Amino acid sequence: MAEHGRRDHLRPVPASPENPEPDAGSLLKAVARGDEKAFGRLYDLVTPRVYGLIRRVLRDPAQAEEVAQEVLVEVWRTAARFDPERGSPTAWVFTIAHRRAVDRVRSEQAAADRTVRAGAASVDTPYDEVADEVAVRLERQQVRSCLDDLTELQRQAVTLAYYQGHTYPQVSRLLDVPLATVKTRMRDGLIRLRDCLVPA
Amino acid sequence: MSVEIHALVGPYALDALDDVERAAFERHLRECEPCRLEADDLRETAARLADGAWSVPPPGLRDNVLAAIGNTRQVSAPATRSARPVRRMWVAAAAAVVVAAGAAGAGAWTIQDQRVRTAQATAAQEARVRTILTAPDVVLREETLDSGGRVTVASSRLQDAGVIMLSADGAPAAGRVYQTWTIRAGTPSSAGALGEGQSAAVQVIDGLPEANQVGVTVEAAPGATTPSAPLDALVELT
Ligand SMILES: [Zn+2]
What is the spatial distance between Cα A183 and Cα A164, in angstroms, rounded to a whole number? Predict the structure, then answer.
């Protein structure tokens, strides 16, 4: 509970009255009822992160676009399955996106293992300068500073898995640390990240 | 195993498990409330990492997606949770043929990948199969199927896992499927059923060294909850 005070200064800037932040939960509910207009608004809300995440994992923009389209259509198709008891609507969307990206990158990985620069997990994208929306900048900055808050091993274990799609045995080999350590660092790294991040 | 499996919650939340371990952990989640709560919580956190990957979407994507949803039927909310199909765990169905090379024994086996991949047949699964087949303590046993063909079982205590490789001469009659069973202290439990029309599969079984026997039956599709007599093959593991 003591952490709450520490979190306060990281709270996102509230949406301005003329541009109210759409609520992903009610949008997703409307989408589940077949509301295409709501889907359009949900699209605008989540797609920069869906596409960015997939592109980050896959590296290849053309493939990323293809997988992003599959994911967004899947969100439309299965919106009724979203269970608010188990998490937030945006987490539900990004979980689908991440899973698809990882599945794709692993099937691509079959023959030639991709070369990886362990630890070189930059958070930049080529479109940085375009992302000038205050809220977005702030959220990204927050993830970045919270990642910096992790121990080196936690940060590498989390980012090699999440941003590059590696399995934990692959991470163990890349970092040359035992499997059990990798499992633990992934878990306690996420816990530390959770405690640092402001609720979405 | 049970102490071990809780520790997979971090890798699970980051999608850092291969398909086989992911399926095993999701089975565990249905039985383990603490892991389920923690998995939901950590997934929520992991998804926030998407905030750090913001990128401008390609210009044509929006129109393409909006056009695609016009032709996509939506599912309705789940009334009841449907049972997971038993054949979900089948790996690389009809994709891999195991070839004995040289003297029988550790490491003398290779997989000929025919590049007939099913959606589930990922590189991660193939790597797992290879790891088991090349384990220093792997033990291989083979029996012929009464219906024609053979079943080969590789088991490694070091990996605490095994591989069942089924290669029948042909698929069973319409409406019937091959199904495999692990039998421990006389009690069979289903290890998975092939799809209709399938005659070959490679399957990874966690904890296989605990079993005494592996059985193969032919059952009505999509598979049975208990094996029906007669067994098509029985492989003694102990
Ligand atoms: Zn558990």
Answer: 16
pLDDT in tens, A87-104: 999 999 999 999 999 999
- Cis amide linkage into residue B230, ω under 30° from 0: yes
Sheet holding B139-144, edge to edge: B139-144, B149-156, B161-168, B200-206
- What CATH class has B139-236? mainly beta
Q: Specify whether the CB–CB gap between B88 and B190 falls below 8 A.
A: no
Strand blocks (E) in B63-144: 96-100, 109-113, 139-144
- Strand-pair partners of B233: B216
The CB-side HSE value for B224 (13 A sphere, CA atoms) comes to 17
- Written as six digits, the tokens of A40 are 């359009």
Tell me whether residues B49 and A109 touch, CB distance under 8 A: no
ipTM score above 0.90: no
The partner residue sitting opposite B15, judged by closest CB among A99, A142, A191, is: A99
Domains of chain A: 21-125 (1.10.1740.10), 141-200 (1.10.10.10)
Q: How far is the CA of B6 from the centre of ligand 1 (A)?
A: 4
